[in-house]
Amino acid sequence: MTDPHETAREIEALLFAAAGPLTEADLARRLPEGADVAGGVALLAGLYEGRGVVLANVAGGWRFQTAQDLAWLMTEERDEPRRLSRAAQETLAIIAYHQPVTRAEIEAVRGVQASRGTLDVLLELGLVRMRGRRRTPGRPVTFGTTDAFLEHYGLASLADLPGMAEMKAAGLLALDLPSDFAVPNPDAPAPDEDPLEPDSPEFHVDFLAEDDPR
């Protein structure tokens, strides 16, 4: 049985050096066999509770970040992030809450045609990805969010998406949602969706041609 305090120290060192969040599985691969990863993470989180830097669960992994109430101190130190247009923000919100969703379905919710540039920007930033193809005529590409989306917005999972009522009021969520509606799992294929494999040539398809007959 490993020393829990030593395990916490080792996890602290790994997270400090990591470029992004590390999952418990990532940590377990680097720690001595038999290390209590969950216990070490819990101990470390307790040690950092209330401090200027805290241990946060983001996109299914763990990372150190500035305490939320001190974020204002970093304002002048941060690089100016690339601003998303209103169209891109609306499109991203629709994808987050309705995924898996096709371009035509995004257009149906927004009421306007989805421009190539809007989806290109979201794909380029890594906030969304092409998930698969709908089993309907034309085999349209479906879109979903990524772990980078969760990390960018500081979410542990899609279940933490805020403002569902506000999104619905703004028309970004369908008003006729079924009573059993739940926030989707971005990794789970829909019943009418064939997933795309990253190493498949189809994965890099020009999605503007998604409605073309095959």
Describe this structure in words.
35% of the residues lie in helices and 14% in strands. The chain is of the alpha+beta class and 214 residues long. The chain has 2 domains: 4-68, Orthogonal Bundle (Arc Repressor Mutant, subunit A), CATH 1.10.10; 86-204, Orthogonal Bundle (Arc Repressor Mutant, subunit A). Helix 1 crosses helix 3 and helix 4 (86-98) crosses helix 6.
What key phrases describe this protein's structure?
214 residues; alpha+beta; Arc Repressor Mutant, subunit A; 2 domains; four-stranded antiparallel β-sheet; two-stranded antiparallel sheet; 35% helix; 14% strand; disordered C terminus
Strand order of the largest sheet: 3-5-4-6
Total beta strand runs: 6
**CATH topology of the largest domain, what is it called?**
Arc Repressor Mutant, subunit A
**Rounded radius of gyration (Å):** 20 Å
Largest sheet: 4 strands, antiparallel
Uncertain spans: 202-214
CATH H-tier superfamily of the largest domain: Winged helix-like DNA-binding domain superfamily/Winged helix DNA-binding domain
User: Percent of residues in beta strands?
Assistant: 5-15%
